[in-house]
Write a structure and sequence with these properties.
Blueprint lengths: L2 E7 L3 H12 L3 E8 L6 H15 L5 E2 L15 H4 L21 H11 L4 E5 L4 H9 L3 H4 L2 E5 L15 H5 L1 H9 L4 E4 L1 H4 L3 E3 H10 L1 H22 L3 E3 L1 H10 L4 E10 L9 E5 L15 E7 L1 H12 L2
Parallel strand pairs: 1-2, 1-4, 2-3, 4-5, 5-6, 6-11
Antiparallel strand pairs: 7-8, 9-10, 9-11
The chain binds alpha-D-ribofuranose and calcium ion.
Alpha-D-ribofuranose (RIB) binds next to helix 1, helix 7 and helix 12.
Length: 314
């Protein structure tokens, strides 16, 4: 069996690429999905998470998470990136995968307590559910094997504001709680994902050789490519969410900088992640006492894509 993981997700086109990969890869044992608002409403992202479980063909529980950030007003959904339905118009109407009783935060707590030291959390949406779980049960920080977060931007601009990456911008206060907890966090932000370009040719291969799920991903990706072409000016997509998973099973493809990370919670830089390399001096308190975060600052983009294609076309 592969590494036990729990994915907290706001599907989302790149979330779909990540989850169908995780469900197919022998490197992972997906113990569940928890949904979060973000790329669409909580009702839509929960529906989409259940649809992905159907497509993955595994009995993987789904728990519904928060509809809003901890305290701030929810930001607008990025319909120009992921479409009204989060899947570029291709969200299936019918779903079968059941929804578990209780909240996502409760499901996270129960799962970590049931498998102490064995489960890695993989949040690939806003961090509200993870912060709620920490607030309700601070002991989970010692119980998780680790946390691999898609989010943040350290040495590069953000993607929703000049300062902030989308998942952190959606709930900066939650992110500050998660980066500050005493657990082992890997931060897979834009510094790394901007070095992982997914091309239309890559997706054509997934469509041709990846079966029904490959055809679904190719259809949903049309909207994602159109956004990158028309708004960002790129003829490829940044491969965000799958990279947080691939960092776990192929650590050789990423360069890490051990750091402490803090999040700007207010003002025009809200959602900015600031990293201090742990060996660097600071005269300011509040940094060195924080948990160590492995910030991925470089990626072997071709290596990441080749690995993904190998799994999805096997
Ligand atoms: O910034 C990229 C992140 O924002 C990804 O998780 C994507 O799904 C969007 O939510
Ligand atoms: Ca996401």
């Amino acid at each position: 069996m592969g590494e036990k993981i729990l994915i907290d997700t706001d599907p989302g086109i790149d979330d779909a690429f990540a989850i169908l990969y995780a469900l197919k890869s022998p490197d992972f044992d997906v113990l569940g999905l928890t949904s979060i608002y973000g790329n669409a409403s909580i009702e839509q992202t929960t529906h989409n998470a259940r649809a992905l479980v159907d497509m993955g063909g595994q009995a993987c529980p789904v728990a519904q998470g928060a509809a809003d950030p901890l305290t701030i007003e929810r930001r607008a959904f990025p319909v120009m990136v992921h479409g009204e339905d989060g899947f570029g118009g291709f969200s299936p109407a019918q779903i079968k995968a059941p929804l578990v009783q209780g909240s996502a935060a409760g499901f996270i707590i129960d799962t970590l307590r049931a498998h102490p030291g064995e489960v890695t959390l993989v949040p690939i949406g806003p961090l509200t559910n993870i912060a709620l779980a920490l607030q309700q049960a601070p002991d989970i920080a010692q119980l998780a094997k680790g946390v691999s977060i898609m989010g943040g931007a350290v040495n590069v601009n953000g993607n929703v504001t000049p300062a902030a990456e989308a998942n952190i911008y959606d709930d900066p206060e939650a992110a500050e709680i998660v980066f500050g907890a005493p657990w082992t966090v890997t931060m897979l932000g834009l510094d790394a994902t901007h070095q992982v370009p997914l091309t239309r040719a890559n997706v054509a291969r997934i469509e041709a050789d990846g079966g029904m799920n490959g055809r679904f991903l190719a259809a949903a990706a049309v909207q994602y490519f159109d956004f990158h072409a028309e708004v960002v000016g790129l003829d490829f997509c940044h491969f965000h969410d799958p990279s947080a998973l691939i960092a776990l099973c192929r650590p050789d493809l990423f360069t890490r900088q051990p750091s402490s990370v803090r999040v700007v919670c207010e003002g025009f830089a809200a959602g900015k992640t600031i990293a201090k390399p742990i060996q660097r001096f600071t005269a300011q308190p509040g940094w060195d006492e924080r948990a160590r975060v492995e910030v991925c600052i470089d990626a072997d983009g071709a290596g990441v894509i080749n690995h993904y294609l190998e799994v999805m076309t096997a």
